[in-house]
Hints:
The structure holds two protein chains of two kinds. Chain A is built from no helices and eleven strands.
Amino acid sequence: KAGxxxxxxxxxxxxxxxxxxxxxxxxGHRSVSWYQQTPGQGLQFLxxxxxxxxxxxxxxxxxxxxxxxxxxxSEMNVSTLELGDSALYLCxxxxxxxxxxxxxxxxxxxxxxx
Amino acid sequence: xQTVTQSQPEMSVQExxxxxxxxxxxxxxxxxxxxxxxxxxxxxxxxxxxxxxYKQQNATENRFSVNFQKAAKSFSLKISDxxxxxxxxxxxxxxxSSNTGKLIFGQGTTLxxxx
Lengths: 114, 115
């Protein structure tokens, strides 16, 4: 069974631009969560989607948004990029109801903002 | 609000030895889950072990075991017979069923296993 796939793996943007990251969950997993990982702040929860609905959201500004498609694939978007948005963005999928926090992570998308 | 604290930023252990990573957390909830996740260098994060708060028995997965002290809000990870492949950053994480998809992570402990 294929794991969680994130694309692109690496990208470089400049301040003010926007970026879209993609995540394909494990087949059969309907919940997708996104996390931001930085050396200073550690791992912080962005949002979680289930059946195309955002069920939970972390404490991030409105520049961070996401969506989930009917095939459970998810995208997150960051608009008006700031230097502080440089981070590893991790996507994780789970079976949702029965998983109770057991998340399967992708390798991440490393974003550098110049 | 829940918080998770890992007080050991870095640790090292000799191959085949035993090491314990510490984690404390704070919550007013009674039913929750605790996890240890492992993030090897440049590789994806994987689940090491899970503990349900309502279970008194400490979880064990092969060489990995936990010491769960609910009253003290402590959740340490013991790695026995350490192997070079155990070199990674280890994160302690807290989960509430009502907070779907949201793991609250500690700052992590970088563990190096030396040959």
